[in-house]
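Example record used in the benchmark description.
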Amino acid sequence: MKTVVSLLVSAVVCVSAGASQAQEAKFDAKSYFAGKTIRLQVGFGPGGGTDLQARHFAAHWGKFLPGNPRFQVTNITPNTASANRLYKSPPDGLTIELTGSPNVTNQFSVAQSEYKVEENRIIGTHVDSASVLFGYKDLPYKTLREAMNGKQVIRMTWRNPSQASTMRMAALSEWLNIPMKFISGPSGTAQNLLELERRDTDAWMPGGAGTAWFGLPVIRPGWLKDGTIRPIAIMGAPDTKVRPNTEIGMPSDVPYAADLIADPEHKRQFIAMSNLIDRYSKIFMMPPKTPDHIVAAFRTSYEALLNDKEFVEKLEVLQGDPVQYTPGDVVERDIDQMVKDYVEYQDVFKTWEALAKARF
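Model output (C-alpha cells):
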C-alpha cells in the first residue's frame, strides 16, 4: 500500500507534468517571438569560419522561426567567456550560441569556466568534423612523420596551455620527440591565418573539430591548391575519413597522428581526447532549463532551414562541405557521454597541461 507521502509526491509530479504539458499546448511561438531580437553568440572574432556561418544563419533563420524575429550576432572572446555567458543567460529562447566544439574539455581544464555544458540545451549541428594540422609552405617537414626527431622547432599559437587542442598537441610533441614552441596569441581562424602570413608561426591546428579544412578554400582561395598552406597530419581518430574539399583531396602521404604513436596506452588516450574535441563541430546551444516547447521551436526551424536549398547552397560554399545534420537530442546524449569520458581520463589529461606549459 502506498504511503500518504508517496501519494502526495505522485500527485505533485502529475500536477507538475500536467502544468508543463498545458503550458506547451498553450505556447504560441508566433506571438512569443514576434518583434523580438535573438542574440546569436560566437566565441570567436569576426571573419573566421564560425563567425561567417553564424552571420549566414542570422540573416535567414528568422524567416523559418514563427514570428520572424531578428537575429543579431555578438562576438564574445575568448570562447570560454561566451560559454559562461550562455550558461547564465535567461532560458527564454532569446540567447543562443554557435560553438566551435562541444566545450567539454574547456569546462574542466580552463580555470575561468563557469558552465556545465551537459546542462545546456542543444538545437543541433550541421557540420561533420575533419580535424587537420596545417603547415606553412616554408616548413621543412612535408608531413608530421618527417618532424619526428626533427631539429627545426615548429612554432604554433595557442590561447593558453589549458586549451584542449594545446594539450593534445603537447602530448604528441612529447611522445614523438617533435620540437615545438607555443606562443600565446589570439584565437579564431582569421587571426591564426594572419599569424602564419606574418611568419610568426609555422603551423596551425584549428580548435574544436577543425572544419577549416573545408572552409579554407573560401577564406583563403588558392592557399591549399598552390601550396601556401598544406595538411601535414590528420588529428582525428584513424577511422575518420576526410573527404576532399573544393580545392584538393587529402594527400595520400599525410598520416593520422594517432598512427604515429607507438605506445598502445598513449594511442588510446590520444584517440579518447581526439573524440572529445572532434566528435562534433558548429553546435547550436541554448541555456540550461530552456523549456522543451521553446527548444522544439528552434529545432524544427533549424531543420527546416537546413532543408532550404538556396540557404544550404550558400552555407556549403562557406564551409566547403556538404551539410551533415545531427538532431539536438542525439547531440545532448553524446555530450553527456563525453563529460563522463573526460571525468574518467582527466588525471591523464592534466599531465598534458604541464607538457603544454613547458612549451610556452
